[in-house]
Design brief:
Order of helices and strands of chain C: HHHHHHHHH
Number of domains of chain C: 3
Largest sheet of chain C: none
Strand content of chain C: under 5%
Largest interface: A-C, 71 and 80 residues
Strand content of chain A: 25-35%
Structural class of chain A: alpha/beta
Distance between the termini of chain C: 101 Å
Chains: A alpha/beta (565), B mainly alpha (70), C mainly alpha (259)
CATH superfamily of the largest domain in chain A: von Willebrand factor, type A domain
Strand order of the largest sheet of chain A: 15-14-13-16-17-18
Distance between the termini of chain A: 75 Å
Number of helices of chain C: 9
Helix content of chain C: over 70%
Structural class of chain C: mainly alpha
Oligomer: heterotrimer
Number of domains of chain A: 5
Number of helices of chain A: 14
Largest sheet of chain A: 6 strands, mixed
Shape of chain A: elongated
CATH topology of the largest domain in chain A: Rossmann fold
């Protein structure tokens, strides 16, 4: 029953009784008619709930597919078509249907909310959305709200129609491959990189005297005429270079909103680099290192390896279940999710709050009631025992852990339920991440068969003081004639916003000061790494991968480096 | 089986509470207000207990059925 | 005819009879009648149905009791028009909340458009058709309110208290009337609501059933479980404190040894 119904029923009942008591027939007739009107509306509404509301089914097609799982790239548009079908009766007017689009998807066309205004057997509506970042998007189902035409009674229901889409990072395929010069080669593969041994490449290695059996087209006629003896041109070999991309997968990279997190930028960059390398015929592998562990994909070529790499990068972008601190805002956020997803579990007849004297103050009492109802839902959904229920009610750490789990499962933006970047920075150990990077780099270097290319995509600007952990390993890799490149993804929080015409506010000034400090740290880090023999490049979030690769190539080898024509 | 026994007990208690209410109405008709009040309080308590028993029993049966199907 | 004009036409059609009746009331001065008319108009455009109902009830309380004797039959025409007015107003408010539509005519237009788009005839709707739809909607509301008013009148007429029972229970006739109608309404509500609530309860989802059981048990054991949890937390805090003290002690011993 809505507030409008209560405020209509009270004057009607009061009027009816006053009219009857004072024998005022006009008032009593009118008021009684209004009471009967409300009763008939209520009866009709209950019948609708019993007959129609329970028989509603939802079918969703994403890009013409109805399967429960799917895969798509980050830059693709998802065309969603939702059909709500009423098996028994018809969908009556004023039924509101809302497809619960997760935060990772942005609606770009159409509306996921549909209001039924005329009786229909089934309702179909379409909208288009686009993923904001790589990861996993689950559209759990539709929330249906049924109400009578007068707005007196309403009831919510969630109809499950889960569809999970694994969103792979988009690969920029326009990036050019750059040729490198190898000293050693044990790979039997043909590639684009130069090895200064005789082979079938296009670059001239040397001229030598003609030996019977040499193909006539390899004879250098002009040189032979000058020297008065037959000379043969000998070309370099073209071989492949094994490329291994290291990606920072620590939890601090997952802070922020979808699409503007560090891990989103890293994934996009790593995906582009891997695709470019695989297209050039280079065996490509991936190492995702975090503060807790390291996950590897051994080098390989072809579409299958690329898909495995993209899947791992997508997995890296998924939110983790690390505990968060409990507070009222997060509790309210979780309650909002519950209202969307589990309206039936919030029914006051089902989810009862234990009676207590304390807290007495209304505000605190409301918080306690909300927490109690939320605890009951968490207990049921996470299959906790009865003894865990008071822990959820009184132990903030325990509640924080389950709240985080619940919000992540609901596909909520991680940035909204983390309090501040500072809290997150402090909560994640950088030292562990650097140690994992060092360990994985050492393992890869130890297993290397010939000159390999290691490309490390991470953000070391905050870990400058920890560079000593990996310094000996970088030196070792460079001494083994492996090529080591660092690509630093610049977090969006460091990007300068606003134009120069705006009056300088305290926030802008602070931001500019941070920028200056950041530039200094960048320069220092670049100098340090270059002195060790590694190449360094910085990639903005929206910068094309080709530009990043070109910067990397120019800075490491100079403009005259071996770029193919 | 136990579920059905409990359900039966619940409905029996509900019938008892209705019978108590009819007794209370009889007292009220003969203007014995205090007796009627006492019986009404008792009947309300019995009715609440019976409704609680029926509801708990139904909820437990649904939970167990879902566990068995899982 | 635009939707704005149509709204006014519907408004005048609904409110007209009430206004005419009020304006013919000889017991009020013209100023009072104008104020009442203004209030009713305001109710139609700005107020919600409950407020309008209260205003009409107040007006009836002040005027009708002076006009008619207690034994006179009720005035069903006024009630009929008032119920129609209340129904239309509450529907309009509800539609405004849901769709952002500002008038009944606009609402009907959107309805017809939806029907047409579903049957793939996207021709623009003429004002005649709009009026036709508006007319059918108003007719439905009028028929329903007529039935309601008749039912209420029947109830008032049939349930008139018997003089012998009035004497037996020692109540006034009006009190007896109120009691009998109140009991009938309560009984009707209980008889209708019991099967529905029982049906809903039999169709609980497993999650709902689980939560109900848990919350019931917790309701009974809450104080004990809260006590256990508090003791556990206190114990954990003490342990942490002891651990910290032990650490500090070992550090101070180490520093003394170093000295």
């Amino acid at each position: 029953m809505t507030g409008r119904a209560v405020w209509t029923l009270i004057p009607a009942l009061v009027g009816a009784f006053i009219g009857l008591l004072t024998s005022n027939s006009a008032i009593s007739l009118l008021s009684l008619a209004v009471v009967l009107w409300m009763m008939t509306e209520w009866l009709w509404f209950q019948l609708r709930v019993v007959r129609e509301f329970r028989s509603l089914t939802v079918e969703r097609m994403i890009n013409q597919r109805t399967g429960t799982t799917g895969v798509c790239y980050n830059d693709r548009v998802l065309k969603v078509c939702v059909t709500v079908h009423c098996r028994c009766g018809r969908l009556r007017p004023w039924t509101r249907i809302r497809d619960l689009v997760p935060n990772i998807l942005t609606v770009i066309q159409g509306d996921p909310v549909q209001l039924v205004v005329s009786s229909e057997k089934q309702v179909t509506f379409k909208y288009q959305c686009q993923p904001q970042a790589a990861g996993t998007a689950t559209i759990p189902g539709c929330r249906l709200r049924i109400q009578d035409p007068n707005g007196f009674f309403l009831r919510d229901r969630f109809v499950a129609a889960p569809q999970t889409i694994r969103i792979l990072p988009s690969c920029e395929s326009k990036a050019d491959a750059y040729r490198q010069i190898k000293r050693l080669n044990n790979l039997p593969l043909h590639g684009i990189h130069r090895l200064q041994r005789a082979g079938m490449g296009s670059e001239l290695l040397e001229l030598r005297e003609y030996v019977p059996g040499d193909p006539p087209r390899s004879i250098a006629w002009k040189v032979s005429a000058r020297r008065d003896r037959l000379m043969t041109r000998e070309y370099e070999s073209e071989v492949a270079v094994q490329t291994i991309v290291f990606v920072d997968g620590s939890s601090r990279t997952r802070h922020g909103h979808w699409g503007s997190r560090l891990c989103d930028a890293s994934s996009r960059l790593a995906a582009g680099i891997c695709k470019t390398a695989i297209n050039s015929g280079d065996p490509t592998g991936l190492v995702v290192f975090s503060e807790y562990n390291t996950k590897r994909i051994s080098p390989g070529g072809g579409e299958r390896t690329l898909f495995r790499i993209l899947e791992r990068l997508s997995e890296n972008c998924r939110t983790d279940d690390r505990s968060i601190e409990w507070n009222v805002d997060r509790q309210n956020l979780a309650m909002e999710v519950c209202r969307e997803r589990y309206p039936d579990l919030l029914d006051v007849n089902v989810n009862k709050v234990p009676w207590t004297v304390f807290p007495i103050l209304p505000g605190n009492r409301r918080i306690f009631h909300t927490r109690s109802r939320l605890s009951a839902i968490l207990c049921q959904l996470h299959q906790l025992s009865l003894a865990d229920w008071p822990r959820l009610l009184y132990d903030d750490d325990f509640t924080g852990h389950h709240l985080s789990r619940f919000l992540n499962a609901a596909g909520h933006t991680p940035g909204t339920h983390r309090s501040s970047p500072a809290e997150h920075q402090n909560s994640t150990p950088l030292n562990g991440t650097m140690q994992q990077l060092g360990t994985s780099l050492r393992q890869v270097t130890a297993q290397a068969r010939d000159n390999e290319h290691y490309l490390i995509v991470c953000d070391l600007l905050d870990a400058e003081h920890l560079l000593s952990t990996v310094r000996p390993i970088i030196q070792l890799a460079c001494a083994g004639h492996h090529r080591l490149s660092f690509v630093f993804t610049i977090p969006s929080s460091h990007a300068i916003s606003g134009n120069g015409n705006d009056p300088p506010t305290a926030q802008i000034l602070l931001h500019e000061a941070q920028q200056i400090e950041l530039l200094e740290r960048r320069d220092h880090l670049t100098r340090e790494l270059r002195s060790l023999g590694a190449a360094v490049a910085f990639a903005d979030r929206d910068q094309p991968i080709s530009l990043t690769l070109r910067n990397l190539n120019y800075r490491s080898r100079g403009r005259a480096a071996a770029r193919t024509v | 089986m136990f579920f059905w026994i409990r359900e039966l007990i619940g409905w029996t208690l509900l019938a008892v509470s209705l019978y108590l209410i009819s007794i209370a109405l009889g007292f009220a008709e003969s203007r014995q207000v205090i007796q009627a009040g006492i019986i009404v309080v008792a009947s309300i308590a019995v009715m609440r207990m019976s409704v609680l028993l029926i509801r708990m029993n139904t909820a437990a049966r649904i939970s167990q059925q879902s566990e068995q199907t899982d | 005819m635009g939707p704005r004009k149509l709204r006014y036409v519907i408004g005048i059609l609904c409110i007209g009879p009430v206004l005419i009746w009020q304006l013919q009331n000889p017991y009020y001065t013209l100023a009072v009648r104008l104020v009442f008319a203004g209030l009713l108009l305001l109710g139609l455009t700005r107020c919600s149905a409950p407020l309008l109902l209260i205003l009409i009830q107040l007006d009836l309380y002040l005027t009708v009791s002076t006009l008619y004797a207690v034994e006179d039959p009720p005035e069903p025409v006024i009630s009929f028009f008032c119920v129609v007015l209340l129904m239309l107003l509450s529907r309009l408010r509800s539609s405004q909340e849901l769709t952002g539509v500002r008038s009944i005519a606009q609402l009907l237009t959107s309805k017809v458009h939806t029907k047409r788009s579903s049957s793939e005839h996207a021709a623009p709707m003429g004002s005649d058709h709009r009026l036709q739809v508006a007319g059918s909607e108003i007719l439905g509301v009028a028929a329903r309110s007529l039935l309601l008013v008749l039912a209420a009148a029947l109830m008032l007429a049939i349930l008139t208290p018997d003089p012998s029972s009035v004497q037996e229970y020692g109540l006034t006739p009006s009190g007896m009337h109120t009691l009998s109608i109140g009991l009938i309404l309560c009984a009707g509500y209980l008889i209708i609501s019991l099967p529905f609530s029982e049906f809903h309860w039999r169709h609980l989802t497993p999650n709902q059933a689980g939560i109900y059981l848990r919350s019931r048990f917790i309701g009974w054991l809450h104080h004990d479980l809260r006590g256990i949890e508090r003791r556990r937390r206190r114990h954990r805090r003490k342990q942490a404190h002891r651990h910290r003290r032990a650490q500090n002690h070992s550090y101070s011993t180490y520093s003394k040894e170093a000295d």
